[in-house]
Design goal:
With 353 residues, the protein is an alpha/beta fold. 42% of the residues lie in helices and 14% in strands. It binds ligand F0G. Pathway: Amino-acid biosynthesis; L-threonine biosynthesis; L-threonine from L-aspartate: step 5/5.
């Protein structure tokens, strides 16, 4: 018996890394592919959830960060910087701590979930709050990395996608082939691009017979890939994907075209309903952005789409505990019931008889 070694050691021969790259890992990846009887019943398909909230810092970002930090350290970096809606900064801070180098994060002020901010702070990141949105933060981070001795680890760094593609490898390893359809939320568009890279590479080495259709879902108020042009003031309750000008735009559009897929939008209401339904039906609690793919499937079901005879994988990207403020504030009808310390009172309050 041995434990999962993390995505670099598990897939080293399939990662394009500079020779001599050290391994900075928290044993990320190896996340569960959980069957979804509820979504299978609704869609008529065979639906699986790739539960990325089970990564060390609670999101899929760890897959890319182990690689980006390892390469940065191999190249002698002493500090790393990223722009983030929260998860990238939490992940980068953890891996920088592990590597013993300095993390600097730029986040949109007031627009990242408290859990993510706490992670960055606890791991020792210098947090700079920007009066602006994610797109502003990314522009500034790029320029900081050009002008100062600090390495940029946003997904414009190709090593991030190199690591994130391993999620597709794991799915193929488990299912024995690629699924027919892959559904996921899209913000900065790195993940959809990385999955596509992983699937295409799997087919090239003969591990799969097909590539899935890539169905990317954006929040309606932050849906540049749906509208076909950048959104100046993106707005959505799903703060992780509150992005108006995705960095991996061209890669993502290529993935959509080559796979015969699509980019579509779900409303905040649909996102929150999907988050709640997923937690209630399947026991999987994800953050709002992570529910966008599930929301998309539900929207399709309502419109009459079925997936009979098809295998569908839905990536749920981050853990629900990242953003409990949104969860608690939107589910107000479930109020606590306060009683005296007494069995009868508790039974009565609970509606038992
Ligand atoms: N889901 C979650 C939970 C995310 O944190 C992100 C992106 C996405 C989906 C979208 O993935 O950007 O590759 O299309 N979060 C980034 C961050 C932007 O800074 O944490 P994408």
């Amino acid at each position: 018996r041995h434990q999962w070694r993390g995505v670099i050691e598990e897939y080293r021969d399939r990662l394009d890394l500079p020779a001599g790259t050290p391994t900075i890992t928290l044993r990320e990846g190896g996340t569960p592919l959980v069957d979804s009887p509820w979504l299978s019943r609704l869609t008529g398909g065979d639906v699986w959830l790739k539960v990325e909230g089970d990564n060390p810092t609670g999101s899929f970002k760890d897959r890319g960060m182990t690689v980006a930090l390892s390469v940065a350290v191999g190249e002698g970096a002493e500090a790393v910087v990223c722009a983030s809606t929260g998860n990238t900064s939490a992940s980068m801070a953890a891996y920088a701590a592990r590597a013993g180098i300095k993390p600097l994060v730029l986040v949109p002020q007031g627009k990242i979930a408290a859990g993510k901010l706490a992670q960055a702070i606890v791991h020792g990141a210098q947090v700079v709050m920007v009066r602006g949105n994610f797109d502003d933060c990314l522009r500034i981070s790029r320029e900081l990395a050009e002008r100062y001795p600090v390495a940029l680890v946003n997904s414009v760094n190709p090593m991030r996608l190199e690591g994130q593609k391993t999620a597709a490898f794991e799915i193929v390893d488990f299912l024995g082939d690629a699924p027919d359809v892959h559904v996921l939320p899209v913000g900065n568009a790195g993940n959809v691009s990385a999955y596509w890279k992983g699937y295409v590479e799997s087919r090239h080495v003969g591990q799969t017979t097909r590539c899935p259709r890539m169905l990317g879902w954006q929040a309606a108020g932050a849906a540049p890939l749906v509208g076909g042009e950048p959104v100046r003031d993106p707005e959505t309750v799903a703060s992780a994907i509150r992005i108006g000008n995705p960095a991996s735009w061209h890669l993502a559009v290529a993935a959509q075209r080559e796979s015969g897929g699509s980019f579509r939008a779900v409303t905040d209401r649909e996102i929150l309903d999907a988050q709640r339904a997923l937690a209630a039906h399947e026991g999987v609690f994800v953050e709002p952005a992570s529910a966008a793919g599930v929301a998309g499937l539900l929207q399709e079901v309502a419109a009459g789409t079925t997936y009979a005879g098809q295998q569908v994988v839905v990536t749920v990207t981050g853990h629900g505990l990242k953003d409990i403020d949104t969860a608690l504030s939107t589910f107000t009808e479930l109020v606590d019931t306060v009683v005296d310390p007494d069995v009868e009172a508790a039974a009565e309050a609970a509606g038992l008889r």
